[in-house]
Design goal:
The longest helix is centred in the middle third of the chain and has 44 residues. Helices cover 78% and strands 0% of the residues. The protein has 2 domains: 195 residues, Serine Threonine Protein Phosphatase 5, Tetratricopeptide repeat; 112 residues, Serine Threonine Protein Phosphatase 5, Tetratricopeptide repeat (Alpha Horseshoe). By secondary structure, it is mainly α. The chain is built from 15 helices and no strands. The chain is elongated and about 75 Å long.
Length: 339
């Protein structure tokens, strides 16, 4: 999964970053920390970003993430008189870079958690318009958009990229050399996701036609038509959920389960997968949230009985995120930050 913010050309590095990297090879931890505290935000951000880019290019994602987490841990120790906002900005910038590395390493769930933490940090002062705030917000939204795109959630991805484009357009007016490339890359990503959303809409139309056809065949008593109808209803329900149309998804997933239980009354892996999808959509509708939690809790026991470890892990993750609400910011960020 390629993330735009770790493209080497995404942001043009500051002039002092190369010197800082050379200094880092010979300086003690105390000396390096003092140098970092004395540097401007952009230089520090570019310094850590260059480490992330270099390590990612060699596939050393775990090592890069560990380096950034260690840097984050010591950032709050002995701040050498720097103000709290500067320290918080560095903290949030490191979270953004870790998010990008996790996406590169195909650790989507971990990336979502880290991105949520970064957005939550930014949401403490949502009306800020300064460069450190906007540059991190723009990069983070670009990567979160690609995360949602990888899940087929193109509507959310488009919304995030629209905001990222506005952010980088504003920054490019201030510093076109530094932020112009990011603006262009965000435009390219937006165009790609727009085309994907159109393909998704066309596929949904295809599934709707297929569902109608299979339903007619079922009513006519054609052999195997029910199996095809179930597959079509399930796919249609999943697609609607990806599009954020959870109320409609609930209807189609419920119908798929109804037909499935006719030919396989006992719980099997196919029914389990459909039921998990249904539970997740129920969670995303306020009026049915409790039903979704109840269904997913019930499915935990079913998954254990079937020995379905992957499905069990997925249910646990869904319920944990629903309980903690830590990922809610990924769905409501557009209500937090001004247009």
């Amino acid at each position: 999964m390629k993330t735009a913010s770790l493209e080497k050309s995404f942001i043009t590095p500051s002039a002092g970053v190369d010197e800082l990297r050379r200094h880092a090879h010979t300086a003690s931890l105390t000396e390096l920390r003092k140098t970092l505290y004395q540097a401007e935000f952009n230089v520090v951000y570019d310094f850590f970003r260059s480490i992330a880019v270099d390590r990612a290019s060699r596939g050393e994602f775990a090592a890069a993430i560990e380096i950034l987490r260690e840097a984050d841990a010591i950032a709050f120790e002995n701040s050498e008189g720097r103000d709290e906002q500067y320290i918080n900005d560095i903290h949030t910038a490191l979270l953004e870079l870790i998010t990008a590395l996790q996406l590169e390493a195909d650790l989507a769930e971990e990336a979502a958690t880290t991105a949520a933490a970064a957005l939550t940090q930014l949401a403490q002062e949502p009306k800020r318009k300064d460069e450190p705030f906007l540059s991190v917000l723009g990069a983070l939204l670009t990567d979160v958009a690609l995360l949602h795109s990888s899940r087929g959630e193109y509507k959310q991805a488009e919304r995030e990229l629209e905001k990222a484009l506005k952010v980088f357009e504003r920054l490019a007016r201030i510093n076109p050399d530094r932020y112009g490339p990011a603006h262009i890359l965000a435009q390219t990503a937006a165009s790609s996701i727009y085309r994907s959303r159109l393909r998704q809409a066309n596929l949904l139309a295809h599934y709707q036609v297929a569902t109608t056809t299979y339903l007619e065949q079922v009513n006519a008593g054609i052999e195997d038509a029910t199996v095809h109808l179930i597959e079509s209803l399930h796919t249609e329900g999943r697609t609607l959920a990806q599009m954020g149309r959870h109320r409609e998804a609930i209807q189609y997933l419920s119908r798929a389960l109804k037909y499935h239980t006719r030919i396989a009354p006992e719980m099997d892996l196919a029914q389990l997968a459909m039921s998990i999808d249904l539970g997740e959509s129920l969670l995303n509708v306020k009026a049915t949230r409790d039903k979704g939690i109840h269904l997913l809790n019930t499915l935990l026991h079913k998954a254990t009985k079937l020995g379905a470890e992957t499905e069990h892990r997925r249910i646990v993750d869904i319920l944990f995120n629903a309980k903690s609400r830590k990922l809610d910011i990924l769905g409501i960020w557009h209500k937090v930050f001004p247009k």
